[in-house]
Amino acid sequence: MPDPIPRAQPPPIRTVRWWRWRRNPLRRPSDLLQAWIGLILAITVAITGPLAAWAVGSAVHGTLTATASEQARTGRHTTAELLSEAPGHPEPGSAEARETRYPVKVRYTAPEGTARTATTDVDPGLPAGHRVRVWTSAEGTLTKPPMPPEEIRNRVVGAGALTAITVLITGTLAYRLTARVLDQRRMRTWETEWQQTARRWTTSP
């Protein structure tokens, strides 16, 4: 039995790049306007993104550095004694156990010399009476130690990257919103022109 004749396939559609910038009979003024808006937004994002990332990163770096310096100036390290045993980790010696901390009540001496109790996070499995290093504020309350330079740098990089991404997303959304508005305008224009053309086709001589 002979093979059936294959069905005819439509020719592949070729995508013409930069067609909005090329002169052709089908290009409308709104197409060229959309191309210019896209170009302006791309240049704006390319310039504004790095500048905004640098500005935000500099502001975050200045704030965090000043805060860390103030904490280092007014606070201090001291020794605290565990009042109870810290819970043991289910997998002692594992990487998760080395990163896990448990809240335990401790006793320490405030800057004015009085004994205080508070809760702080410690390594798992520490016995009662074990001594750990803690950081106290100027008021004598337990707090986190000043942020190290490495953590400050990581936060600055994260804030700058987030700012650059935000600028890129804003530019993309602005272009898509503009394209949608122009598409709706083109559809209304096409509908009006089609109604005028259809009236001439359907009207009897």
How are the SSEs ordered, and which strands pair?
Layout: H1 29-74, E1 76-82, H2 95-99, E2 102-109, E3 115-122, E4 131-136, E5 142-143, H3 149-202
Antiparallel strand pairs: 1-2, 1-4, 2-3, 4-5
Determine the strand fraction and express it as a percent band: 15-25%
Q: What is the CA–CA distance across the termini? A: 56 Å
Q: Per the principal axes of the C-alpha atoms, what is the gross shape?
A: elongated
User: Low-confidence segments, ≥5 residues, pLDDT <50?
Assistant: none
Mean pLDDT across residues: 87
- Overall tally of domains: 2
Strand tally, please? 5
Order of helices and strands: HEHEEEEH
- What fraction, in percent, of the residue positions are helical? 40-55%
Major sheet size, sense and barrel closure: 5 strands, antiparallel
Counting helices, strands and paired strands, the structural category is alpha+beta
Q: What strand line-up does the widest sheet have?
A: 3-2-1-4-5
- CA radius of gyration is 34 Å
| Number of H- or I-type helical stretches | 3
